[in-house]
Amino acid sequence: MTGCYACGRxxxxxxxxxxxxxxxxxxxxxxxxxxxxxxxxxxxxxxxxVVSMAELSEAEAAAxxxxxxxxxxxxxxxxxxxxxxxxxxxxxxxxxxxxxxxxPRGRELAVELRGPRVFGLLRAGERAVSEEEMNVIGxxxxxxxxxxx
Length: 149
Ligand SMILES: [Zn+2]
What we know:
149 residues; alpha+beta; HIT family, subunit A; 5-stranded antiparallel beta sheet; binds zinc ion
């Protein structure tokens, strides 16, 4: 799919770093958010190009709830956060492909960054979590997912 970041990465699945294939099934793929200043910020993506939740298949829809709850549990285990935020917008250029943000909201998260303002931690530039750290976190999330069923 031309111009779609998620589909471009999916097309190269076999060569993806750990943080871009933390967990997968036939319908969904879990990644660490890129260019993001908050360690443990996960994104759940359908493995085919979909731009509206209304286009999800019955099978994709059936798996969605379980994935979101398991990711919330895993992110709580890995980051020690109080709870996980979940959001789906798909408005940025190149990122219209449906994707669910699963965001660790720790006790230490500044009040001015709570709720939708947490998106101020994206497009982080030099403050972004490094690829090395995303891979470490990805490994911990994968391990935690194995224990939170
Ligand atoms: Zn796509």
